[in-house]
Amino acid sequence: MFSGRAVLRLVAGPAASGATGRYYDGTREARADPQAYDAAARDRLRRLSDRLVRRALGDRARPEPES
Fold first, then answer.
1. Which residues pair with 33 in a beta bridge?
2. Distance between CA atoms of 3 and 7, rounded to whole angstroms?
3. Structural domain boundaries in the chain
4. What confidence tens digit (pLDDT) does each residue in 20-49 have?
């Protein structure tokens, strides 16, 4: 478990400026699980997530993207 101070440092500290897209293991920058770099796995996750959100929210869900 990480302290609120550690999380705040990652969110609002000097290193947070321009850190979009980085992955952290606790407070240390690290590489994500290899599956995170797999474009096909990310696509499957996106499609499944969209389907589950539409199921949960019904008409309030965002429209399906055009293919």
1. none
2. 7
3. 1-31, 34-67
4. 777 877 777 889 889 889 999 999 999 999
